[in-house]
Amino acid sequence: MLKWSFLQIQKSRNGFPVDEVVDLTEILHKKNKDVRSAKSIHVSGRLVTQRDQVTVTLKVTGVITLPCARTLVDVPYPLDISINEIMVKDIAEFSGSDDVYEITDNQVDLMPIIEECVLVDIPMQVYAAESNKASKSGNGWIVVSQDDLNAQEQQSEDAEAPKGDSRLAALADYFKKDE
Fold first, then answer.
1. What is the tens place of the pLDDT at every residue in 163-179?
2. What are phi and psi of 5, to 5 degrees?
3. Model pTM?
4. What is the rounded CA–CA span in Å between residue 7 and residue 5?
5. Neighbours of 9 (CB within 10 A)
6. What is the pLDDT of residues 109-123, one digit of tens each?
7. 123, 124, 166, 179: most buried by Cβ count inside 10 Å?
């Protein structure tokens, strides 16, 4: 699955074509527990060799399923990622660059590249179209806006402030008269 020998790619004079459909559900779920499904991800592009390196040009398209941040229902999230990376046999020559992947055992494996690019593309939160219609209260809970919460906190602070003894109210102005 998306893994070829360096020699096989090198034999292709006009570049080695890539056109496969993969299921990334298990791979992505290990790194991001929010990924519920990533089936039928289409990977297409070309691999071109130059000396001891492979230039990877790919297009990754498909749909992954993520949970809605409000309601936890499944939300389809479309993928449309362009990938341009370099793979080399001797990564020591490129020690200052993070954008280079290593060819190990003369095998060009595209899965680590695709996995990294898809994981970076996943948003922190997604919302279902009907998430605004979600229930605003339930058994023992209620959704409160930040402004309402601040007003409630202010009211509780005011209620908890010491009132003072009414018998000593006349003494409250004692120092004000003296000055």
1. 667 777 777 777 765 55
2. -80, 150
3. 0.69
4. 5
5. 19
6. 999 999 999 999 999
7. 123
Strand, helix or coil for residue 108: strand
Secondary structure string (H, E, C) spanning 19-85: EEEECCHHHHHHHCCCCCECCCEEEEEEEEEECCEEEEEEEEEEEEEEEECCCCCEEEEEEEEEEEE
41 pLDDT tier (thresholds 50, 70, 90) = very high
Amino acid at 46: R
Beta partners for 68? 126
In contact, 64 and 37? CB cutoff 8 Å: yes
Yes or no: say if 43 and 58 are a contact pair by the CB < 8 Å rule: yes
Give 17's strand partners: 46
Around 174, how many Cα atoms within 13 Å sit in the side-chain half-sphere?
5
- Measured between alpha carbons, how far is residue 109 from residues 47, 54, 99, 131, 155 in Å? 11, 11, 15, 40, 62
> Which string of b and e fits 27-57 if b means at least 16 CB within 10 Å?
bbeeeeebbebbeebebebbbbbeeebbebe
- pLDDT of res. 57: 94
The whole-angstrom separation of Cα 24 and Cα 39 is 6
Measured between alpha carbons, how far is 143 from 135 in angstroms, rounded to an integer?
Answer: 9
CA of 67: how far to CAs of 2, 55, 89, 105, in Å?
Answer: 28, 35, 39, 38
